[in-house]
Each structure stands twice: as structure tokens, then as C-alpha cells.
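Question (not urgent): is this output format expected?
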Amino acid sequence: MEIATAGEALDFEPFTPLPEADTFALYRRLQDEAPVYRTRSGYVVVSRFADVQEVVDRPDVFSSEAMQKEVGGLPTELDPDMTPEDTQRLLSAVTGIPVDIAELVESRMIVSADPPKHTRLRKIVVRGFTPKRIDAMTPAITEIVTDCLRGIDGRAPVDLVSTLTERLPVAVIADLLSVPEPDRPKISDWSDRIAAATHGPQRGTPVMQVQMAEALRDFSTYFVPMIEARRESPTDDLISSLVRAEELDTMTAVETLLFILVLMFAGNETTTAALGSTVVALLRNPGQLDLLVRDPSLIPAAVEEAMRLRSPFQFMFRGATQDVTIGGETIHKGETVVVMYGAANRDPRVFDDPDEYRITRHGKHIAFGHGIHFCIGAHLARLETQLALEQLLPLLPRYRLREETLARSTSLLTFSYSTLDLDPVPGGPSAAG
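Got this back:
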């Protein structure tokens, strides 16, 4: 699809891939010309900062259950176009999932739950995500980053994705879940397969339905025994915090499984996206990189500005539970709303020169959401990214971004880089210099 230029009709679909520049130019047109926009496929797109914030702050009117329908969960009926072979694979995968399938289909991930269910789940989950627990991970995260960057000295090209931006969050999540070193590649595999099935270019196709079921089977077969073992013999890890009885409330195996699934994907994707976007922004803006090298205390601000500019999650979904007016337009009961975080964070009504990367900018973004669904893992994602940047910062002036190979991931929901290559600056400073 080609972006419509000024004077041409708007044509936007959230799951239609576009080049980076075209994506953000189209966001601006939505905000200026149709801040509440109905797509040809029937979505209602909300793109201005104030309107996005209003939608996510009203869970009584805008239900999060739309997230389950759009980007999560098992298919509830067979696709008529599915081949007999794929049908057999799907049924085999579903029957191999070691939990009650009816409960799995009916349960809600925390990101797609509404009060009071969400209130209960969040109360349990925060037991495992206290600031004390997260801050205590600082030495371990620092050690992981050091290991990732070992041998990088500014003399040879670097594939930053495989070296750091994907490797770091997988290692951190593995530590949180007590997944041993040999099994860590499984986290990336499950995350990639589920992401492709739920919000990749082929989402919703019979092949992806089968892939989703098989990934859930493999994922649950691994974690369900661990969940039950922690219930019987708790340790000091995250899973134990979720399943131990406290005030007579604990997560079921299915609820715990679904939360681990969210953590595995969202935690992985957010850090990968935030770190990659920060590096790209700094190397594209050498004046800002120089400022940061001179004043490393701005590292947290540099990370926040990168997340504002390229929000890790570009949009989320909500479902209207009644007729409601947003931005002067009526959204009808039953309509699915696309909440455009990526557009809201570039709204010129809130941010001056919103397309510029400026690490001294003041003002809060909503890349981590807002209201009751504010990202539980935000503190961890920030900590990982900031600690990584602390060690990476002295190296960055020795490199240039290889723009010709820079590529986004195939996910249409998130904004991260699948290829991020760095080349040594000719004649630049060496590690010794």
C-alpha cells in the first residue's frame, strides 16, 4: 500500500505494513484530518494523545477483552479453508496442551482482563514485580550486558540484535522464570512463533492458527510441571510468587501460564525495541550522542525519548461497551477501537517538534500505557535498557549505523529492529583511544 499524500483520501489499516517514514507521516494525517477514523475493515482508530489517554482510562466503557480476540488466544472454531493435514496438526496440538482447554479458551490474559478479574490478577502479579525485587536484579543484568558486549572494541562490525538487543531480555526473563541456560533458546523460539501467529503478516491464516496451537503446546508442556512444582515447593523466583497462597488468593495453572506468556512476549519485545530504538536514535543524531557522552546522567532521559519517538507497542485494542463520544465522534457499542500509542506519542498538540529526538525534552509519553493497564514490567524494561546503554555508550562514537541493512521486525503491532548492524567509523577512536 502507498501512503496517501495531502488531498488524497486517507487509507489506514493497523495491520498493513508501511515503511517507517510513511508510517509516521500517516499518523500525522490521522491526527490532523481524522482523529477518530474508521478503517475499511471496521476498526475505529484513535490517534490523538488526549483521546488515547481517555480511552485507556475508561475501562468501564472500553473493554480490554478486545486484546484477547485480536492478538491472543486459541482459535475457537476451525477455519473452513484449512487443509485436512493442518486440521489434524491443529487438533493434535490442542489435545497435547496439558491444561483444561475450556479453561484456557475462556481465561483472560492480564492485558485483556477487565475489573474485577483484572484487579485480582494484578494484585497477585505485583507480588513478583516489587521495586525491591527488580532493583535487586541490577548486578545480574549488568553481568549479562558485560557478557553480551565482550570483545566489542570498535574495530569490527557488530550485529547488535543477536549480540545484545535480543539476547539481553531473553536472559533476564530466563533468570526471572528460573529457566536454565540450555533451555533459554526456547524462550526466543516460543516468543517468535506466537508473535508471528498473532500479529505478523500472515496472522489469522490457517497456517498461523496451527503454529499458535503448536507453540502453546510446547510452551505449556515445559512450564506447567514447573508451575505445579513451585506450588508444592516454593522458591524465591517469580513463578513461586504467582502461585503461592497468600490471603487465600493464588493463580491457577492456566492463569499463571497466560501471565508467563505475556511476560515472555511483552518483556522480550519491549526491551529489544527500546534498546534498539535508542541506539538508532543516537547514531542518527550525533549531537544528541555527544551530549549524552558528556553527561551520562541523561541516559534515562535518552531511553524515554527513544520510546516516545518509536513506541515499542504501536497500538492496542479496546472494545466499546456502550455508545460513547470521543474527539467529537460517536463510537458505537460493539466497535473495536485501535488505540494508537505510537501516534499519540508524536502528537504535536502535546510535544513540540514531535518527530525530533531530543534527550532534554520534558513531558511524559504513554509508551507503557496508562491507567489500570500501565505496564507491570515498565520498571524492569527501563532498568535493562539503561544498564545496557551505560556500557554501550562509550562504544557508540566508534560506530556508524549501517542504514542500508537496517530492518524492522515483521510484527505489525510492535516497533523493533530485526537487523541493526554497526560498522566501525573509518579512522575513528579505537578501544585503546
